Amino acid sequence: MIESNPPLLHNYAELLRHSGDQRKGHEVTMEECELPLIDLSGLRSDDEGERIACATAISRASAEWGFFQVVNHGISLELLRKMRREQIKLFKAPFERKATCGLLNNSYRWGTPTATCPKQYSWSEAFHIPLTKISEEACYGEFSPLREVMEEYAAAMQELARLLAGILVKNLGQQKGVFEEDCNESTCFLRLNRYPPCPILPEIFGLVPHTDSDFLTILHQDEVGGLQLMKDSKWVAVKPNQHALIVNIGDLFQAWSNDVYKSVEHKVMANGRVERYSIAYFLCPSYDSLIGSCKEPSIYRKFTFGEYRKQVQQDVKKTGHKVGLPGFLL
To answer: What are the backbone dihedrals phi and psi of residue 239, each rounded to the nearest 5 degrees, phi first?
Structure first.
């Protein structure tokens, strides 16, 4: 059996041995869905009715699905292609180099260090980079061509995220949200993901089930597929659309909207034959930003983003999984 880069197979086998989990693989038949597809050119229309219809579609999808996909979003396909090419070059580097040389603010991660059993393990590797670090030349080493394209990519994603967040805030009858002042280049993140081929059990997670802890996430994925989300109390597979970006609501927007917008549980399943790449942009506030509600009575107690992140980390360490918003209900 071929060892992967990074050494996920060895890591998983050790976890399996220590946990005593002797699961047998089985194929799972999965219903496939197409996310709501929204053409953002409607926002630029001269027709007020078309602009309103587009904004309404964004809000409806955020409330009913927690996920949607967008086309004509204003980010050039050439920029997306360039970013993907440089991302692939980065991940093709030897594992030892990625893990030890401090690349991209020493943000390299692989597997799941906190996992105590196979169901908590993610068969993937990633660079999770604060936007404040992507301009620093020292972070790149021999991968210097990545710096320029990543700066351009992050700026484009930041602009799109703020546009979408502004629409969601306005459609709740609010003039402004906490994100407008507190979500900027100093607080947001990019995550470059690679899911290597997985030669073992077919139900292994590329990324374990979770909700995102931000306001919203914009995902650029390839055509391989593997993303699944919880819809009507069952898992559905998202049909990949390489021409669209995927947007999903995070926990902070669900809390701020008083549960109008939904932060939906999702996961990535590993693929036995081919690798998968994606890039996620996370719209986050500063750690001391207070996340209140846009209306009273509020469902959740007030909390800061820093407090929320700390609680998530404590829960994962204690129980092996994220509790999230239910732990902040009044």
So the answer is: -70, 120
